[in-house]
From TrEMBL, chain A:
It holds the Pfam family Radical_SAM. The lineage of its organism: Bacteria, Pseudomonadati, Pseudomonadota, Alphaproteobacteria, Rhodospirillales. The keyword rRNA-binding does not apply. Residues 91-324 form the Radical SAM core domain. This is His-Xaa-Ser system radical SAM maturase HxsB. It comes from the Bacteria.
UniProtKB/TrEMBL annotation, chain B:
Transmembrane segments: none annotated. PROSITE patterns: RADICAL_SAM. This is His-Xaa-Ser system radical SAM maturase HxsC. Pfam families: Radical_SAM (PF04055). The lineage of its organism: Bacteria, Pseudomonadati, Pseudomonadota, Alphaproteobacteria, Rhodospirillales. Its cofactor is [4Fe-4S] cluster. Residues 96-321 form the Radical SAM core domain. CDD domains: Radical_SAM. GO terms for molecular function: catalytic activity; iron-sulfur cluster binding; metal ion binding. Keywords: Iron, Iron-sulfur, Metal-binding, S-adenosyl-L-methionine. It comes from the Bacteria. PANTHER family: PQQA PEPTIDE CYCLASE (PTHR11228:SF7), RADICAL SAM DOMAIN PROTEIN (PTHR11228). The keyword NADP does not apply.
């Protein structure tokens, strides 16, 4: 048919323009490209050179992929810019909601003496380490000043159940005041489950309170990591878990694991323990350089490279579980993958840009001190009060949320302007961590070349990109990403 | 396949184009008869006073009115409440009261010229079509559940399309309206504004997008720059809170790029209301270009399966239309909808024993006639 023109006639001509993208060499041959919206492509080194020189063949598959994925455009492509802008706005949409997560440290007292714990105290002295009602009232005032329609109230410790009276008081008080505010409020208690009682569970059920618990792995490993009188932490966890599920339902209890040097050889065993106890996923978490973890040298128990080895081995085991038909998610991966597969930010406070400190989460310490993050108050326990933004007893909302310590930390660590972040291919999937970098390098920006945070994020990204060469894993990761 | 356009075997009366609503009720009150056409079944006596008479060929005697015609046998499906247009003996069925597939042609002009177009565009002056559609909308009962508007490219009508939709909203306030458009016109903010300002409570526009690669889309629709305008049109509509369905016709020129297109939709247009993946209708240009566009659905089964899985994972609502069920993968089959307009749905001999014809997306009658997959396997 002569009236139809062939496909070649619709190929563009004239110079193409590069859209903002960044790259990271995966190995000698391959380069990972990412655009502003976090979309990624792997190309050969030679192709990258051809691309940036403006010499790409217009009829080739690579030109078509790069144009469709907004790495380049023809000058007449207006939709590409509109879409890129839209995706970028979506990526940052959460900022407009401001603080959601409000942590109440209701006591520092704890029945455990974990080796890596940052803050807890073995003390019977209620007066010194418990939050008072007066302090809680002031914190609740601040909570309702947040413009966010969806508020998450998390009770932390110590072991928060040691001060359950205050939890009860805070929940009832917030619920009462919320009759007027009409926010969407979710309560969470972070607990080892060792002290869970029928009364506690009944109250949790009534107020739809979730439990976030800790499980480090099989009994011997868990108990070694989490000493308590009677050396029965694991047994109490299991008993508490079953009891909680009886009352609250199968999904009301989640668990977090912390990797210690003793965990490194036991990735699959740890996963099996989660599986055995009926969990559908695990969050593989590294140690943070705070509190007793530093004091007891457990942070030095392994370096980031060793943790990444552990992570990759354990992740591979989890992938193989899925291959065999068992649905099981690695939640740390899911959070990062969500940013790779979509421009919707999962709202994970530790991986946000600008940093989630203060503006996504805020911590009310037992004594009324207000901190930019949970790590910030741990730093305080080590004698560094940099990220103490004020006190609920002395400062108002405006003073706390415009504290110079907070604003300069947010600004100084902003990844789109931070050296080595601004041109890093992983930037769209990463975040700023001013508290970590302050703790390790003495300033909120840090030195990325030496940063364990940076090394870990880049390492994880590489692991994901490599794993996704297998189409099964690519589809699995997509499901994790989009259901987290 | 139903015949929607044809010629009366014999006719009498005015040669002016007139729309008639049909009734076979001889007891209709006299005051209502003047505006109705009496549809005569069999060879009985004719009641008096109707505006026109639609008669079987064997009808004897002289109709009691100047306007009449003898209906050819392929229009025997016409029934109570249907609306036809009569113009010097030419009959066009515009509305079938008992069909959920009424689509009203608004223009035959189009600024795309798709290689597989089932309704090849004509560059003719046809403004009378939209005028007729206005008359039709005034005659359709407000209880009608659904009404489609199609082209050509309706957006080329500009303000006349806006007027028609506004009239439809006023006259048929509870009727769901589906508009087919290539979306390019909506890239003009003034036009999108006017469209959104109608504030129709149940209006969806179906817009075809054939590739993530602008060059490939432009080739398929044979119009340079069409991809850019179509995507900006979709964005403009969604920005204004309008409902948009993205339509992808599955054929040789779209299948290779389908994974990339599904990915493009998921990452860039996740907020659209629905993706419709549609089997090819072997008529019009698709028949002329059959070698370029035909692909056996059995050969793209895994590709389609993956695209559906991707859209599902991104929670983009997806439907598969006009597609034989036995040629879909297990997962894609869950998204199959029986949707071919009743007047062009047919099955072939292979399907005779199939137990799932009730659930099947089926064939366009054109497919049954000109080309269909040799891989059909009836469910037994």
């Amino acid at each position: 048919m002569t009236r139809f023109l062939p496909a070649e006639d619709y190929l563009p001509s004239g110079r193409y323009e590069l859209l903002p993208f960044r790259f990271e060499r995966l190995d000698d041959e391959r380069v990972l490209l990412s655009n502003m919206a976090g979309e990624a492509l792997t190309v050969s080194s030679a192709d990258l050179t051809t691309l940036v020189n403006g010499d790409l063949d217009r009829s080739g598959a690579l030109f078509s992929r790069l144009r469709a994925n907004h790495f380049l455009r023809q000058p007449e492509d207006r939709a590409a810019l509109e879409l890129l802008a839209l995706k970028l706005r979506t990526r940052y949409a959460r900022l407009r909601d401001f603080t959601s997560l409000h942590l109440f440290v209701v006591t520092l007292r704890c029945d455990h003496a974990c080796r890596y714990c940052q803050v807890s105290r073995q003390s019977a002295d209620r007066a010194s380490f418990d939050m008072s009602r007066e302090t809680a009232d002031r914190a609740i005032d601040l909570l309702f000043r947040s413009p966010n329609q969806a508020l998450k109230v998390e009770f932390q410790g110590g072991e928060p159940l040691l001060n359950f009276d205050l939890i009860r008081y805070v929940v009832l008080s917030i619920t009462e005041r919320n009759r007027q505010h009409k926010r969407d409020i979710q309560f969470v208690i972070t607990t080892t489950l060792s002290l869970i009682s029928d009364d506690t569970l009944a109250f949790c059920r009534e107020h739809r309170i979730f439990l976030s618990a800790s499980l480090d792995g099989p009994e011997d490993l868990h108990n070694a990591n989490r000493p308590r009188p009677g050396a029965d932490s694991h047994a109490r966890f299991v008993a508490g878990l079953e009891k909680a599920r009886d009352v609250l339902g199968p999904e009301a209890v989640s668990a977090l694991m912390t990797t210690t040097a003793a965990s490194l050889q036991r990735g699959p065993g740890i996963v099996d323990e989660y599986l055995r106890l009926g969990f559908h996923g695990i969050f593989l978490r590294h140690l943070s350089p705070y509190g007793f973890a530093l004091k007891t040298q457990s942070y030095q128990g392994y370096d980031t490279a060793r943790w990444l080895e552990f992570y990759e081995e354990t992740l591979t085991y989890i992938i193989d579980l899925n291959r065999s038909g068992v649905r099981f998610t690695e939640q740390h991966a899911a959070i990062i993958l969500r940013k790779m597969f979509s421009c919707h930010d999962p709202g994970y406070v530790d991986l946000m840009n600008p940093s989630g400190a203060g503006i996504a989460a805020i911590v009310f310490n037992y004594d009324g001190g207000v901190f930019a993050s949970d790590e910030s108050r741990m730093l305080m326990e080590m004698g560094d009060d940099t990220f103490r933004l004020g006190s609920v007893h002395e400062h108002g909302y405006d003073e706390i949320f415009s504290a110079p310590a907070l604003l300069s930390a947010l600004e100084d660590s902003f990844t789109l302007s931070a050296p080595m972040c601004a041109d890093c291919a992983c930037e769209p999937w990463c975040g700023a961590d001013p508290v970590y970098h302050h703790a390790r390098h003495g300033d909120p920006l840090g030195r990325k070349a030496e940063s364990g945070f940076c090394q870990r994020m880049k390492g994880m990204t590489r692991i994901f990109v490599k794993a996704m060469e297998d189409p099964f894993v690519a589809a699995l990761f997509r499901r994790w990403a989009l259901s987290c | 396949m139903l015949t929607l356009n044809g010629k009366a075997l014999a006719w009498g009366g005015s040669a002016e184009r007139t729309l008639w609503k049909l009734t076979s009720n001889p007891a209709l009150p006299v005051v209502l008869r003047e505006k109705m056409a009496f549809l005569q079944r069999g060879n009985g006596p004719l009641p008096q006073g109707f505006g026109a008479y639609i008669l079987p060929p064997e009808q004897q005697g002289i109709p009691p009115c100047a306007h009449w015609l003898h209906l050819p046998p392929d229009f025997a499906y016409l029934a109570e409440g249907d609306i036809i247009s009569v113009n010097a003996g030419r009959i066009r069925t515009l509305w079938r009261q008992n069909s959920p597939h009424n689509a009203v042609l608004l223009t035959e002009r189009c600024d795309n010229n798709c290689v597989m177009c089932s309704q090849p565009p004509k560059n003719i002056e046809d403004h009378w079509l939209v005028a007729e559609a206005m008359d039709l909308v005034r005659m359709i009962p407000p209880s009608a559940p659904v009404l489609g508007f199609t082209g050509g490219e309706p957006a080329l009508l500009g303000q006349r399309l806006i007027d028609l939709l506004a009239l439809t909203r006023a006259r048929l306030p509870t009727t769901a309206v589906h508009l087919l458009s290539n979306g390019r016109g909506f890239a003009d903010p003034a036009f999108s504004d006017a469209y959104a300002a109608i504030q129709h409570p149940d209006l969806m526009v179906g817009i075809p997008l054939y590739a993530a690669d602008p060059a490939q889309h432009d080739y398929i629709v044979q119009a340079r720059g069409a991809f850019d305008q179509t995507v900006r049109g979709i964005l403009a509509l969604k920005e204004r809170g309008q409902r948009v369905e993205v339509r992808v016709v599955l054929h040789r020129q779209t299948i290779e790029g389908l994974p990339a297109l599904a990915q493009f939709i998921a990452r860039n247009l996740q907020f659209i209301d629905q993706v419709a993946l549609m089997g090819l209708e072997v008529t019009g240009f698709a028949r002329a270009n059959l070698d370029q566009v035909w692909i056996d659905p059995a050969d793209y089964r895994p590709t389609l399966e993956n695209a559906v899985a991707l859209l599902r994972d991104y929670q983009v609502p997806v439907r598969i239309y006009n597609h034989p069920l036995c040629l879909l993968g297990e997962m894609a089959a869950q998204y199959s909808v029986k949707s071919i307009s009743d007047w062009k749905n047919e099955y072939v001999a292979e399907c005779a024993a199939c137990t799932r014809r009730q659930d099947c997306g089926g064939f366009f009658s054109s497919g049954a006639r000109y080309r269909y997959s040799p891989s059909l396997r009836p469910f037994l």
